[in-house]
Structure formats: structure tokens, C-alpha cells
Amino acid sequence: MHAVDEFGEPFPVGAGLLGAERLERSGFGQQPLAPALERVQACLFGVRGVRPLRQTGANGRGIDPAHQAAYELQLPPSCLALGDSLRCIKGLLQALGQGELGAPCRPDANERLPERLQGGHFLLAPGFGLALVHLYGRLGCFVGSRHRQTVGGRGLCYHSRSPSRRPAQSPSMTATAAVLHAAPATRFPLAADALADLAGRVVSAARARGATSAETEVSQAFGLSVTVRKGEVETIAYNRDKGISVTVYVGTRRGHASTADFSAAAIDDTVAKAVSIARYTAEDACAGLADPALLARQWPDLDLYHPWDLSVEEAIALGRECEAAALGVDARLTNSEGATVSAHEGDFAYANTHGFCAGYANSRHGIYCAVIGDDGDTMQRDDWYTSARSPRDLEPAARVGRLAGERTLRRLGARQLATRECPIVFEAPVATGLIGHYVNATSGGSLYRKSSFLIDSLGTPVFAPQVSIREEPHLARGQASAPFDDEGVATRPRDVVREGVVQAYFLGSYSARKLGLVSTGNAGGNHNLVLTHGDDDLPALLRRMGRGVLVTELLGQGVNPVTGDYSRGAAGYWVEDGAIAHPVEEITIAGNLRRMYRDIVAVGNDVDRRGSRHCGSILIGAMTVAGN
Questions:
Q1: What are the pLDDT digits (tens) for 94-125?
Q2: pTM, whole model, 2 decimals?
Q3: Pick the CATH number of 192-410 from 2.60.120.260, 3.40.50.2300, 3.40.50.170, 3.30.2290.10
Q4: CA pair distance 449, 457, nearest whole angstrom
């Protein structure tokens, strides 16, 4: 058996435990096993599937993270942490049955292996037991590896040809072993200062390669997602991602490259490729870093990072509780799409050649449930979810399930409608999409490309006079809170729409230059948008509407961003005399966003704050409903 030390040099760590053959795995830093791991048959694990969690960047910004497939199967992070040492191996091998490195195993080691592996936080998950994983023709449980800065490290592979009993408990992915070699103040392989140092090295390398200016984002993230369906474990997915994204400018020429390898050689090679690309691209006078005067210099603590020490068993229990609550609403709820519990943590550092270097950790957790109802003639589905930065802010799992069940039950017996024109209430969760269409139409890319129905709308009335929208990027624990945007530009609270009149666009540095304006700190998208609302709750809005359609689900993508034409499939409820009469389905609602925005009658106080747009239900005066 061989491993690598903190300098990347191979050294023996024990003669094959339990008769395991030596497994050499060259170039793990470039993930040669990733395709094979993703093709592992689900039946080998005793669950219905093992799938990767593909996240965007560590802060949700769309960095190109490379999925490290080894973490997919919850390998021991203590051995996978970047730049760690293997001083813990001795203690682990002792626990597994070896008194000293290289010493023979105790006679009872094979029988005691399952509980010893559990004690060392090495087993994968409840359904796995001593899972047999087929890797290049070998049977084994992949319980040790090194994902290092250098290519060519070795891994450890232990296997048993006679699996023993399953462990009583599987490890928490954020247990002590997972952060053994990280700095005390962090749960990630790299501490914040190390991440910032790495970002600094990238921009320095870009300068050395001849770049006029450069920027980089270095990220790391990990997460857990467990799905339970009909009381059984459907999937258990772990992810651990990292990535470096670098953009260089040679004069006004731009080049971009990314990598998941943090080694010095890989960084130099990635920067070299970015510079090479830049030398072949066309000159663009609008290309370049953000204006130094706009960069963030100080900001408040936005309280965005709340770790969740969620074990696999706890996640499974929450999923079962959630699904059981949903199915327990009514006997007609006969099937389930499952309940999913997820936890995600990320950290990043952004740096550029203006001297800016900053970053922060963040978290996002959630519980989701969807069930299916059957009344003998038709089947319906609906769902509910909760999402928050802190697990303490999540709705209880039982409530999420109950709401999913109640929503599904109310949709049984849905009918079609005859074609007509009538008022429409968009329930809060779907009403946020109307604000999303506005953001897209007033974003820099759409505006300078002349592909928006709101070109030159600055200072003009677009919404009804009672509608105002404010951007609040500094809300504590906000889902879209950020002290600076993807270019380091400081964010600030501002009015986007005031009394129906457009006050500002959503611009990054490039689009702002194309339009002859200044960046608004929206490189990467909008921050928390808060739509003003009245005093009416949803029942009051329905009474105000009197007769019309309450839309609770939208289908399809029938929105033309150039003309504003809007036509989407919908489902919901027909309302008579201010009260729900019956559910409806297979209808299409149509209009034009310009008219719809101007025809907003009221906004409810049932605000949905689960995303980046905080919006209540919206009552629109009239739209076309196409049915029978």
C-alpha cells in the first residue's frame, strides 16, 4: 500500500489489509476514475441510484467546478483534504486491526472490520454496508484516496470477500474526520487565507505571462442530498467540488480558462492557455476589469454561512417524516415522487490585478416533497419546499410534507375551462417568475444586444403606479445577499422601480460600457428584489378578484423576450364569488408582459422569500384563458 505525503512523495502505509492487493492509481488529480465511478451499477449499493450533485460555483455564481467523483461515494475527507498529511493513517490502521504500520492484522480483524470502519467514519451510508464496488475489475470498498496538488498520487483500497453485518450508524459528512486536516476555523480543505493566497498566485501568474490585467475566482464546496421515496432510500449523493476560473486581458483582448487542479503546474498551464486565447480574440474596447473606484472596500456581515451537521441517518429520517406527513393527509394520496433533504456549503475567493481580493463562506439547505393523488378517474401532483441559509430557518419537515399533500389533494377533480378573458391571480411562488422576466428584460446583455421589449425604458412607466421594486443586497441571511458582485463591485440598496417607473437597470462592467453607463453591481445577476405589497392576503385577493383563475403552476417556456408576448400552460383553480370553486387544468394563459405589468391591480402580503425575488401573489386585471 502506498500513499503520498504533504510533498507529493509516495511512501508505504501498510501491507495490504485483509489481503487487499496493492492498487496504484496514477493521475487521480485529473480524475481518470470519474467516468468509471459514474457508471457503477446502482444495484451494487443496495439503493436505487447514486448520482452526482452538480452544483454551480461554491457561491452559486456559475464557476466551472470539476466534480470530484471520489467524493461521490463519501470517501474519507480526512484523507482527501488538499495539502494534508497522513499522520492520522497510523491511528486508523490501528483501529482497523493493525498495531503498527506494516504489521500483520489481528486474527479477528475481518469480523470486526465493519464496526471499525464505522468508527473511523469510513462506511458510505446505511444501505451500503460493506459495499462491493467494481473498479476496473477489482472488488473493493474505496475507503482512502488522495486528491492532491500533484498528479500521480496513490490510493488505498481495502476489500472483503465476505461482507459482514451492516453498521448501526453511518458517518455524518461533516463529522470531525471530515475536517481533520483543515484549519480549526474552517470546514473546508482550504482555509480562507489559503484560498485567498491561491487566488493571489493566479493573478500573479497571469501578470508574469504578459497579461495586462486579470481576475480569478477560486472556489470549493461540498454537499449532501438524500431522497426517500415510499419510505425507502432512493438516492444518497455527496459532492465535493473545487475550481479555479481565470480571465485575462491582453490590452483589450480577453481570454478565459478554468481548472479543478490546484497544483502550481496546473495553475501555470491554465493561465498560459487563457493568455494564448486572449492573443487570438478580437479587440473589444469595452472589455476589462471593473472600475477600481467601484470595488467594495468594506461591508457588513451578512450572516450567510450556517453549517448543518446533518448525518445520512438524520437526512433519511427527515425525508421519511416529510413524505409520511404528505401521504398521511388523505388516503387518495397513493404515490410519491419522493422527499429530498439537502445541505450545501461553499467558500470562494475573488481577486484581480487592481489589488482586490475577498471572499466568504456561504450555505444553502432545503427540504422538498412531491406526492401524487388518485381519485379513480384522474391523477394529480403538487409539491412544496423550504430553503434557507440556516437549517434553523427551514420549515419543519412535517409541515413541508403536509403542505405538499394538501396542495395535491386540492387539485383532484380538475376540469378544463372554456376560452374566455378574465382576471388572473398568480400565486406567490409563480408570481416571482413575472419579476424574473422583468429582470431579464432590463439586464445589460439583453439591452445592448437590442433583444428586449424594454429597450430605453429607463425613466419610463412600465408597471402600475402602486408597484415599487427595491433591490436589497445586504439582507441578513438573504438567498441572494452579497457584499459585492462577480467583479468585486460593491453592492448597495437601491430603487429599481418606484411607483411604476423604471429607475435602474441590472448591469455588469461590460454591459455598462456598451450602453455608456456605469456598473450597478449586478455582474452575476440580481440580488434580493423586494416587491412592495398591500394589506390583502391571498383569500382577500380572491375576494377582490371575484371571478377568475388562480394560477398555482405554470408549464412551458412561452415567453418572447423581444416582444414581451406571454403564453404558457397553466393549472390552478376557478374562482367564483371570491372563493375557490374547483381546480382547473390544461389551460393556457396569454397576454403581453407590457400590458400585464401595467394591469397589476394588487400585490398580496403572502410574500415568498425562498428565492432572490420576494414577492406576494399578484392580481392582474385581465388575460386571455384558452381552454375547450
A1: 333 433 333 444 444 444 433 433 333 333 33
A2: 0.72
A3: 3.30.2290.10
A4: 15
